[in-house]
Amino acid sequence: DQQVKQNSPSLSVQEGRISILNCDYTNSMFDYFLWYKKYPAEGPTFLISISSIKDKNEDGRFTVFLNKSAKHLSLHIVPSQPGDSAVYFCAASGVYSGGGADGLTFGKGTHLIIQP
Amino acid sequence: EAQVTQNPRYLITVTGKKLTVTCSQNMNHEYMSWYRQDPGLGLRQIYYSMNVEVTDKGDVPEGYKVSRKEKRNFPLILESPSPNQTSLYFCASSLLPSGSGTDTQYFGPGTRLTVL
């Protein structure tokens, strides 16, 4: 059962417009959410994060919104630039009880394509 | 330069031939993880280590082994590789556990493994 879902495998956006990438989660134990960006032939790099005690976090052109009641978060990129073309992974983590591996649970990723 | 390195970057092998993928980080991080990335499945955690000699299984540990004899190194071992282990592998490290909500993971560049 997938706990972090990115239902859009790809998204095409015109340069200069807003890109909105969506992510849903099912595990209510998650309390920290992250977005990673991945270029081909490179490892993922951290982009932005948000704690469950907040509903918005902004860093330059990137803003992440969290709706805890809906178990939904979104990444907004505005304005979109050609260099933003990449695969974006949503990830979640939480303090688990009862043992087990601690780590990030990733979504399947969304391939964002910025068109000139 | 702070980084996570993996070797080899590319490997083609045959079923049953033991192999090791090395991972090393120079950030004095305590937490290290191995992930595999497969089309349509995103990133899935294989194994996790919280410190030297402390490891735990992730979501897909079958067919893999790890060791953590030194803080900086976290090799991934495939004792008897099979074609279903053909994948893109990423090593990651962090100073704090991902569930702490105060740190992020740093990823290596990836190792593309093909098992024939």
Low-confidence stretches of chain A: 97-101
> What Rg of chain B do the Cα atoms give?
13 Å
Arithmetic mean pLDDT of chain A: 90
* Number of strand elements of chain A: 11
Task: Please estimate the helix content of chain B.
Answer: under 10%
Question: Treating each run of at least 4 consecutive H or I residues as one helix, how many helices of chain B?
Answer: 0
The assembly state of the depicted protein chains is heterodimer
- The helix count of chain A comes to 0
How many beta-strand segments of chain B?
A: 11
**From the coordinates shown, what is the CATH architecture of chain A?**
Sandwich
Radius of gyration of chain A: 14 Å
Q: Structural class, judged by helices and strands of chain B?
A: mainly beta
Shape of chain A: globular
Model regions low in confidence, pLDDT < 50 over at least 5 residues of chain B: none
Largest interface: A-B, 31 and 31 residues
**Succession of helices and strands of chain B:** EEEEEEEEEEE
Assign an overall shape of chain B.
globular
Structural domain tally of chain A: 1
Helix fraction of chain A? under 10%
Distance, first to last CA of chain A: 38 Å
Q: Tell me the name of the CATH class of chain A.
A: Mainly Beta
Structural notes for this entry:
Chain A has 116 residues and is mainly β. Chain A has a single domain (4-115), classed as Immunoglobulin-like. Chain A has no helices and eleven strands. In chain A, strands 2, 4, 5, 9, 10 and 11 form a six-stranded mixed beta sheet that branches. Residues 97-101 of chain A have low confidence and may be disordered. By secondary structure, chain B is an all-beta fold. Helices cover 0% and strands 49% of the residues of chain B. Chain B has strands at 4-7, 10-13, 19-25, 31-38, 42-51, 54-57, 65-66, 76-78, 87-94, 106-107, 111-115. In chain B, strands 2, 4, 5, 6, 9, 10 and 11 form a seven-stranded mixed beta sheet that branches. In chain B, strand 5 (42-51) and strand 6 (54-57) form a beta hairpin. Chain B is globular. The N and C termini of chain B lie far apart (36 Å). The mean pLDDT of chain B is 92. Chain A binds chain B through residues 6, 9, 31-32, 34, 36, 41-46, 49, 51, 89, 91, 93-96, 99-109, and chain B through 4, 31, 33, 35, 40-45, 47-48, 50, 56-59, 90, 92, 97-101, 104-110.
